[in-house]
Structure formats: C-alpha cells, structure tokens
Amino acid sequence: MSQISEYFRSIFFPNLGITLRNIGDHINIGSFEVRFYGIIIMIGFLLAYVLVTNEAKRTKQNPEMYLDFILILIIPAILGARLYYILFRLDQYIVQGDVGATLKAMLNIRGGGLAIYGGIIAGVITAVIFCKVRKVSFVLMADTATFGILIGQILGRFGNFFNREAFGAYTNSKMAMAIPLDYYRSDGNLDYLERTGVITQKMLDNVVNIDGMDCITVHPTFLYESLWNLLLLVFLFIYRKHKKFKGEFALIYVGGYGLGRFIIEGLRSDSLMIGNTGIKVSQALALVCFVTAVVLLVINYVRCARKGWPSVEMSGDTETEVEPGGETTPDETEVEADADQKAGRQGSDDYTEK
C-alpha cells in the first residue's frame, strides 16, 4: 500500500465533521509489511484471553485450561474463517492452470478475507474435541468463552476499517463514511470492486467531493457491528451474576449477535451469496442463529420459572442447579447434555451465581 499517496488515505465522516488523515493499513518492519488487520486479530486473541481467564477465575474454574485452549484455537479459527470466505468466493482465488498461484492467493490473509462464522464454526468443533479430551463441560466452556468471542469481534471489525472493506450501501445519513475513490484506484482494485458490485452504481451516482477528492459515502457497517457487540458484552457483564441455567450466556450471545448481524448484513454491499439465489449467506445463518437461540432460551426460562428460578452453583469445573432454599436439583436446564461432565469434576470450592 506504500504506493498510495497519503492524500488518498483520508477517511471522512462529513456529516459528523470528522476527518481522519493518513490512515494506512500496515507498518513496515525492515522490508516486511505487517498489516494492521493481522495485528488487530492478535490483539483480539490476547484480550479474549484476559476476559476469559477473568471469568474462569470468577466462577472457580481453572484459567490455565483456557490458555491451553486459546493457544490450540488460534490456527483452526483463522483457517476456518479463511476457508469459509474462500468457499463462497472461489472465482476470486482460482488461477486457471496455476496451482501454486491459487494456493498462494488462498493463503494470503494479510489483506483481509476472513469470515467470522467460519472462525466460530471451527472454534466450536475445536472446543467439542478439547472438552472431550479434558473431560470438562462444553456448555460451561461456551458460556465462559462468550466474553472472549465478543471482545475479539469488537476489535476485529476495525481491521475492516483499516482495509476500507465490509462497508455498507450508499447513505447520506449522519453516520455516512466517505472514502476517496482514488484510494481504490491507486491500489488497482477499483475496477474489480465495481465489477463485483461492492462499489455500486448508486454510490458512483452520488459521489461527493471532499478536499478535492471524489468520495463514495457509505454505511460504516464495521462500526455498527462493533458497537452492537459492545452492547452485548456490556449486557453480559451486568447480567452475569444472575445466570439462570448452563448455556444461557452462549445462547444470549448467539441470539443477540444473530439479530444484529441479520440487520447489519442487510446494509452491506459485499456479502457472500448462496449461489445465484440472491440470498446472503451471513444473513440467512444469522436468522437461523437468532430463531434457534430464542426458542432454546424460552424453553429453558419456562423450566426455570416452573422450579422457582433456581440459581447456578459452581463447584470446581462444573455447575449445579440449586433451587430456592438451597436444595440441589438434576441438570434439567442444561442446554446440552454432557456425559463427560461428571467424570471431569474437580475441586471442592463452591461459587454461587444468584
């Protein structure tokens, strides 16, 4: 990106009166180019570790287990996110007659091209295997990991900001973000973005001139999603002492994120599509996540109400439901039965969430 003039690296929020100058997308260490996208992902993993281990300590779990899991997770999560993205854009990466160039294009993630759903799917598969081997509750780990997933997503979207990608359709609203067309023209990507519909005709028909530069004005959907995830994280921090059943945090995340992603994805112009159906992959999956999570939450809340809203008691690496008055009950409100959980109980310290 060094060939792009600093003049074209500006990003504007004209209706808010905000101008950001010389916003690059990488730093150079010697002759090696390090993308901010990758740096942000690594910072996300580090902050995820901090939040997850904090939650593990709060609930009397072994925080070192989560360090082991995060170290194991890094490669599968990135590969899953990349593979998911590539599967829906194969034509962008296949170089006819050149397997080496094709593989090189597929493996080059420094410029972006990661899909969060692919990372989450890979993470779930990795977590299931990890929990089976360690003989711990997958549901409990999912609740705890939710805090880390959210902080990773909050930060990760800013990688899209530096890459000037994952933006939405044309808008002249208060939140409109203006990007100089010469930024993409200098990078050699303008024709491709126009051809694939990422930069739409409506954007080109409504170009505005700011500081002598023709700019498209679009929805900053990266920011919308980041703020939505921040709200979810704040809610979980406020609510976490009132946990009603195992798997509740994970379901709140799945439902909440699904709702926000469904709405925000509808604004984007670069969505992955299901073949030629015109249906956006992420929007369809978000709707499934939202509906499934809401159904499971309602089922479990009804069960809790029938039992007088029991609390959840921690003992080592397991959770036990406790009815009002202190009497323990069977694990009827656990979202997913975990046959290995009993074998994995450790420690005797008690922690009660009310």
UniProtKB/TrEMBL annotation:
Read off the PROSITE patterns from this record.
Answer: LGT (PS01311)
For binding a 1,2-diacyl-sn-glycero-3-phospho-(1'-sn-glycerol), which residues are annotated in this chain's numbering? Answer: R157
Acidic residues bias locations: 316-338
Q: What is this protein called?
A: Phosphatidylglycerol--prolipoprotein diacylglyceryl transferase
Which residue intervals make up region (Disordered)? 313-354
Query: Where does this protein chiefly localize?
Result: membrane
Gene designation per UniProt? lgt
- GO: which molecular function terms? phosphatidylglycerol-prolipoprotein diacylglyceryl transferase activity
